[in-house]
Amino acid sequence: MRAKITYAVTAAVLVFYFVLVGSRGVMLIQSGTLITVTFGVAVLILPVIGVWFLWKNTQFVRRANALAGELDAEGGLPVDELKRTEGGRIDRDSADEVFARRKAETEDAPDDWRSWFRLAVAYHDARDTPRARKAMQQAITLHRAGRHHSAH
Questions:
Q1: CA separation for the pair 64, 123 (Å, rounded)
Q2: What is the rounded distance in angstroms from the CA atom of residue 84 to the CA atom of residue 94?
Q3: Alpha carbon distance 65, 74 (integer Å)
Q4: pLDDT at residue 152 greater than cutoff 50
Q5: Which of 64, 68, 118, 144 gives 20 to 30 Å between its CA and that of 124?
């Protein structure tokens, strides 16, 4: 729940920033000189890119959460079996061990979105965020493809 609140607050701050920057861009364009119009258009590009990025990220999070909900309903969410240090940090060797099992599971079932989801969690636990996102995106893609195939 805390992550959802943090995400919502961050998104709201970003939207406020995009509106503020966008209004400055419009003001520059309304000035009407070649330089201010050029700067105004350049300034408007930033909020457009930001809104697009925020939208894509929000879709990703919603889809990943939907997969987590479906996997939870099936009883297939990965169990937290990681060893932790006294300070609560994940033990690196423990994360590597779980990761190796998840990777082997995914290699055995490369078309199963569930194994990719669990691999994404293992990557996240190993603090490899870029690969965690790629694995989760693969899980989302496979899940969506499976829905389309089963619908026909």
A1: 14
A2: 8
A3: 14
A4: no
A5: 144
The span from the CA of 138 to the CA of 118, in Å, is 11
Q: Are 67 and 117 in contact (CB under 8 A)?
A: yes
Tokens 């209004």 — which residue? 23
Where residue 149 falls among pLDDT bands split at 50, 70, 90?
A: low
Residue 114 tokens, joined = 């569930």
Residues 6+ apart with CB under 8 A from 122: 78, 95, 98, 99, 101, 102, 103
pTM over 0.85: no
Alpha carbons 7 and 35: distance in angstroms, whole number: 37
